[in-house]
# Entry
Amino acid sequence: MTTSCQQTPTQYSLDIALPKFATFETFVDASDSQLLHVLKQISQPSSSEPRQYFLWGSAGTGKTHLLQAICNHQVNTQQNAIYLPMNELIDQQAEILKDMHQLDVVCIDDVDAVIGNKEWDRQLFLLINELRANNKTIVMTAAHNPHEAPVSFPDLASRLVWGPVYKLSELVDDDKSRAIQEHAKARGLEVSIEVCGFLLKRFPRDLNKLIGLLDKLDEESLVQQKKVTVPFVKSVLNIQ
# Structure
């Protein structure tokens, strides 16, 4: 069973594959924050650094990308990490978190999908405590500020904000163009600003969907041995 961690310390099977292009290099930050630098240091544990981080922001701000980048980054380290998308795991038993404290890094995406459920709140509370006690790392994301989380008991509310809280900003079109180009570069593909502008104009500005188009363009570019130009994009994506 393919999972997002090097070992899973629980009896539950988690079939969660990580996209290989979700890296720190392909992430575009709309602000000048030091967030990327901070998250890269997770693989270099230090007792003087925070071991808990909370990222929040609207859809399309890169929360999922960052968590997956953290886990992909751990492949070259001696640490074990796991990516847990709560929107996909919400129907599972909360006990899947029970032994996660044995890992070095636990990344919980969309934690607000389960917050408010008493059993999930209890397991989250225990996990955060155990990871902290063992100097391990947890990174959580949500759509809303954790200070306003509708938890079922107050103790979890304080645990959610034990570490730094970062708000991710939405990307403007120029940022999205840079992100498309970085993802293209990671695939060995050259995409011009003109092509980026065309994609943004003709397709919904959902960055995940725009990035998804690159796979088809990349494949056809190899098959047809052509550069990615606006006419080529029109032909491949059947745009008049």
The first helix runs from residue 35 to 40.
